[in-house]
Amino acid sequence: MESLLPLLNVCDFGSDLAVIKHVIHKLYQLAGSEFSNTPIDFKLNFLNMREKEQIHQRYSHSYVLTSFAYQGLFSIINSDQYEEKEYILVAILNCLSHYILCDKIKRSPIPTKFLNIKNNAVSFIDYILYSNKDQSSEYVMKFLKYLCLNVDDKTEFRAIVSHAILSVMLHLLNQDVAIFIGWLLDLVDDTNINNRIFALEMLGIILGSNFTTNRQRRIT
């Protein structure tokens, strides 16, 4: 991994988007390594840490692997080697949707380790918006629509996804927040009853969360 991340900044995988998508998928799989409830610090760069012994004493092996994976994904997003930045961002978001939706879990309650993986994925998307909101906000907003339409109809799943969406919404551009809320209002009249229920739940959470105040705090 120590040799991989620097290469992600300089390597040109060529024009074959399938190759880039394959690399993204492998990093996405590695990003699910950390099961503990320790939040990932996306600004922490293990490559700049000189004392390897201190790293292993302070951080678990799975934490380091997860951090490397997210650093790798972030390097690909920000690399100047690729013109298809939108495609890359969408591909990464599509991968992370599996963690947020917990779609591999077929029972309730959802095991804690998968909730922690979900939290790391949500925090990473927040970090993407924090780092480059102007270019990523619209695509993340569309990603939130995808989550709404694909959430499991079980109560617990809807609850964790709705709060994940709310967390990400705090970082969107104002116009994208407005578009998303307008879309939710339209979804209330959808022919699919699960979509209607989730839209109503999502709107209720937004109204009851002091959303505007929390957004202002994030901005300031």
What does the model show?
It is a single chain. The protein contains 11 helices and no strands. The chain has helices spanning 4-10, 17-30, 52-58, 61-78, 85-101, 112-131, 133-150, 155-169, 174-187, 193-207, 211-219. The model has no long low-confidence stretch (mean pLDDT 86). Helix 7 (133-150) packs parallel to helix 9 and helix 8 packs across helix 10. 70% of the residues lie in helices and 0% in strands. By secondary structure, it is an all-alpha fold. InterPro entries: ARM-type_fold. This is Condensin-2 complex subunit D3. It comes from Caerostris extrusa (Bark spider).
In short:
This protein is mostly helical and 220 residues long. It is built from 11 helices and no strands. α2 (17-30) packs parallel to α5, α5 (85-101) runs parallel beside α7 (133-150) and α7 packs antiparallel against α8.
Output the helix-strand order. HHHHHHHHHHH
Report strand %.
under 5%
Q: How does the major sheet shape up? A: none
Count of discrete alpha- or pi-helical segments spanning 4 or more residues: 11
Low-confidence stretches are none
Distance between the termini: 36 Å
Radius of gyration: 18 Å
Write down how many β-strands occur, each being a DSSP E stretch of 2 or more residues: 0
The structural class is mainly alpha
Percent of residues in helices comes to: over 70%
InterPro entries: ARM-type_fold (IPR016024)
Protein name: Condensin-2 complex subunit D3
